[in-house]
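Listing 4. Sequential folding, example run.
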Amino acid sequence: MSLKLFRSTGYSSILAPGETRVATHPGWMILAVSLWIGFVCNVALWRELRSLAGPGTGRALLTGVFIAAACGAVLSLFGWRRTLKHAATLLLALAALIAASISVQQLPIGADLLDQGLRAVMLPSWPSLLRWQFPALLAGLGLLPMVWVWQLQLRRLPGPQQLSANVTAMLLYLTILAGAGWLVMR
């Protein structure tokens, strides 16, 4: 006679915590964060849309595709279980900081933007920092998606499957990056 320490009913729920089938694939988070940075944090696109689809809307959309593909490639590089959320948080914070700074200072978008200096693009002057728009933009563009990223449960893939997904996604994003870069430079 054997001793049974635990009784098993054989019932398995898909709602059990930690269930891998319910969690989101890491690729979907990479795509969502990349699209957020490329299009929502794209000050040039919002300025063109505010002017009722001005002549630069196509170029602003292409720039958004370029930025989203670049972010997707970087996040695919760091697409491992222990590094993905940290890399996404860093990219979201950087994109929100740059977008809020450009928007609050009303800096012109174009080749002249880099002539302003990296410090001026990333951090506005003290009076601009103290206005309510800067913290509101930082919270809306950076803090909200960061909370989403950290609350999202990601599927844990086995090592070879995760490596395959990362390499495939990186090649896809680099292809899109090259195509968008070629179109932007034309």
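-- end of first protein; second protein begins --
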Amino acid sequence: MTNDFLRTAAAVSGLALAAASCSHAVLVRPAPSYEAFAFEAPLPAAAAVFVDADQLFRQVRMTPDPVEGDSLCGDASFPLDAREALEVSVVGTLERLVRDIRPTAAPLDRQAMEARGLDAVLVVRADTFNVGLTSGPLFSFEAGAELTLSVSAFTRDGLQLREVVFGNAVQTQSGITCGNGSEALGAAVEVAIENAMTELGELIANSPALRDSLGGSG
């Protein structure tokens, strides 16, 4: 081995060890779905949308693969906050399916809905959110994410829809630092959200009860 090679190897090793004890924030971008099959026109309604995304805030730790994984990133932390990403994804998905979408900071009851001149209230709550990150050999990472969302839709006629949608994903990433683990995590959560948004869009766009209540069956 040459001295240059040894110096390079030592530098990379030192960089990796330093990264292992750091915090690597996970970037999760919004992932609205545009794949919902709407067999009819958008719902003719002005709807309030409330998203409860509190579950999507976690501090993730690495789990070494029991056979081939190393522990270089065992002390690293991966703070993950996907609350805003989910909220923006829900609104972005529903804006294509309902004539007028109005995000709200809290769910509205029937009296508040009517006082604001709204036709419907849509509530999306994150019920479960499971995420994990596993290390493999030579700084390879596998991240998994799954979430379930409960969806409720109310109109002036009352409750029209109550269902659960689901999204999951597995993503891999390789690199020379523990920061590549955060990239894998972010990608997995984004894909899981997009999958759930496709189910959400299908549910809202093609609900006979909701469409009939809002006068959109014709």
